[in-house]
Amino acid sequence: MKAAVIQSPKTAQVVETDRPKPGPSEVLIEVAAAGICGTDLHIYHGEYQAVYPITPGHEFSGVVATVGDEVRYFKPGDRVTADPNISCNRCQFCQRNEPNQCENHMAIGVTHPGGFAQYVTVPESNVFAIGELPFDEAAFIEPLACVVWGLKRVQIQPGDSVLVMGTGPMGCLITQAVSRAGATTVVATDILQSRLDLAAQLGATEVVLADGDHGERLKAYAPAGYDVVIDVTGLPSVLEEGFGYVRPRGKIWVFGVCPPQAQACFVPFDVFRKDLSIIGSFAVNRTFPEAIALIQSDAVNVGPLISHRLPLDLFSEALDIAENDPERMKVQFYFV
Prior knowledge:
This protein is of the alpha/beta class.
């Protein structure tokens, strides 16, 4: 089979390798669609704790090819996706129902071979049926599950005003999700007008181009401040800016992934005096079923977020597009 392999940071190629065999409690999935995530780019650059050589890819869907002897709930031909996070179920965090903080956390596409291959093995407990959902849409279930976990942490309230800072694929998922959660004012800002236009199509009530003179325009839509300000950019400077838009007793949702060593500045007195909440959300936490329901019901529309579909043979070119094309949204691999 074909598989994209990152041998070491900044060294990658598509190779022919043996088709994996599932263990007794594993499912072998024939991949149909797989999306590139920012984490995959970090792995390529050696900025993430992956186990090299590694086949990345943790946003994927496909068809069950075969199953291990102990698999009970899936059979060949089933259309599925998979939660890439593998928890030990024994550490203190797993036993507190916090598997995303597992002390022995492993992940498909990070520590185990991932979905940028024709076949991938997954524990049965991580596999989810997708019904007739198109494979390219089903490959969004994992990123949307990350959004759903954040929503549970932030607790959007009916009538909330929300500022979404960054309208790439994740920002557009969040824009839709907070609207479905009850927010009635959803203002999106970005440096690219094309992304803002898409965010407006997907439910943003207002969009503001971040052109260096946008602060007053953002404040005009929520003069007392926003109930929730969300950084989706992963840029410390943008996160810092967000503190200027949140209302007293409001919430700052840190969703974007800043570099591990980066620091952001804020005024602790303001957090104290204004009763601010700063909330992070990492990965997923048993939120695949909700993400599947949101896409299957068309409550969240993911189709318009796909800007590029490429064969796996163009792996390096796809990584370059995902990292350097300012107009790109989600880049996916398709498998014939």
